Design the sequence.
């Protein structure tokens, strides 16, 4: 019996040792975490205190300047203060961004009712720093208003007003508005953020009668929009701006969060929609930036891509828009596109697109069947025929396939054909279809 008891005693001792080691490890890890966190917080706080001192010194320096000299190099108002500077303290590099603008205070009405819109100057200081405990997206910010020693004086120049909104017509705060004007004296080259109302209002903008102010609006994770010169677009929808003495120049820009389009290419239905790698296609958005000299639209987005060896490609950072896909006749004809006939991309969304490609034929037609709400309809029986004995039948593809709700008729002649479409629960459809080249057509079926 003694050996057995000895083994039990040794086993219990081993368990106690393991439990003790586990508890010790947990306590040690907790202690190390506490020490590390405390050290990190102390470093961050010390760094932020240094940043605060920098901001206070900058503000005091600006406050001691003559009021008329308070301004940014290339800014509105113009001055000798650099918009961005770097300062090193205790081996930490700080970036000091300074913004100075005129404020038109509603207390004495706003321009144009206020004949003296430059009531005072607002100084904004933002300080970023890098390192283990960097400021990240939370810089130190300080704002102060500086008024003239005497009453406000008459400004030379006009007021530049920019409004930035999203796809739902809601204001976009903290959007970056870059303003460049090389045709004014002084030259303007500044970037400023919109306020909570999505606006930038700049009284005292130097006069420019012949389109000097280039505006570009952007924000991280958003699309962008800008003005265009007549050298870029003959008739721009958003031309470069002019500013007249004592008047307001207003312009608005639409941006929103970008989305993603996944495109997958396949062979046609007769090949059971096998993957088709290396398919080159053109994708074009519906938005335009103006027209050319022949009054043709100039599209904001158009590019060429090729699917990879797996027949897929991901298009990121795409602006919300309605996109259309084309392929060259040397590649083939699109015999199915899901969703058809265009890709509707909403802000911050992902759209998966399936594209079936057939061999090119001189004349062909891809027909999409939808209900009155625009939803594709599967299993529609379609019959295409003429009065010379030609007849072809097909059934609209099922959900999940590249030709969902579509039929494709290739190898046609250049002529007008008759089309009949039937589906249980819907009225029969009869119409004519022309096949001059490659055509895509959408047909609405009405329920009984």
Sequence:
């Amino acid at each position: 019996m003694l050996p057995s008891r000895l083994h039990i005693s040794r086993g219990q001792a081993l368990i106690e040792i393991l439990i003790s080691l586990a508890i010790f490890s947990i306590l040690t890890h907790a202690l190390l975490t506490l020490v590390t966190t405390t050290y990190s917080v102390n470093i961050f706080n010390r760094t932020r205190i240094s940043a605060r001192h920098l901001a206070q010194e900058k503000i005091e320096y600006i406050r001691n300047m003559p009021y008329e000299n308070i301004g940014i190099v290339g800014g509105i108002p113009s001055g000798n203060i650099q918009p961005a500077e770097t300062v090193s303290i205790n081996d930490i590099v700080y970036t000091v961004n300074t913004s100075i603008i005129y404020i038109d205070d509603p207390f004495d009405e706003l321009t144009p009712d206020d004949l003296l819109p430059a009531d005072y100057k607002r100084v904004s200081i933002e300080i970023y720093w890098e390192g283990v405990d960097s400021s990240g997206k939370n810089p130190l910010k300080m704002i102060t208003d500086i008024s003239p020693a005497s009453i406000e004086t008459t400004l030379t120049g006009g007021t530049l007003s920019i409004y930035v909104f999203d796809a739902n017509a809601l204001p976009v705060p903290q959007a970056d508005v870059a303003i460049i004007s090389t045709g004014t004296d002084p030259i303007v080259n500044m970037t400023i953020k919109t306020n909570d109302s999505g606006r930038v209002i700049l009284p005292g903008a130097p006069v420019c009668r012949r389109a000097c102010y280039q505006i570009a609006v952007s924000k991280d994770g958003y699309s962008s929009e800008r003005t265009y010169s007549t050298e870029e677009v003959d008739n721009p929808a958003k031309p470069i701006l002019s500013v007249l003495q004592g008047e307001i120049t207003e312009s608005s820009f639409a941006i929103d969060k970008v989305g993603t389009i996944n495109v997958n290419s396949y062979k046609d239905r007769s090949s059971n929609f096998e993957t088709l790698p290396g398919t080159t296609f053109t994708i074009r958005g519906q938005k335009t930036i103006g027209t050319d000299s022949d009054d043709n639209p100039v599209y904001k987005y158009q590019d060429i891509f090729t699917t990879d060896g797996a027949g897929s490609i991901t298009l990121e950072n795409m602006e919300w828009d309605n996109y259309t896909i084309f392929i060259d006749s040397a590649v083939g004809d699109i015999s199915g596109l899901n969703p058809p006939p265009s890709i509707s991309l909403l802000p911050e969304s992902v759209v998966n697109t399936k594209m079936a490609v057939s061999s090119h034929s001189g004349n062909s037609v891809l027909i999409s069947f939808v209900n009155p709400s625009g939803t594709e309809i599967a299993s529609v029986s379609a019959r295409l025929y003429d009065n010379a004995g030609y007849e072809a039948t097909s059934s609209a593809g099922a959900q999940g396939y590249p030709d969902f709700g579509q039929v494709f008729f290739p190898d046609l002649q250049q002529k007008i054909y008759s089309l009949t479409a039937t589906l249980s629960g819907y009225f029969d459809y009869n119409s004519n279809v022309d096949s001059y080249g490659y055509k895509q057509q959408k047909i609405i079926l009405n329920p009984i």
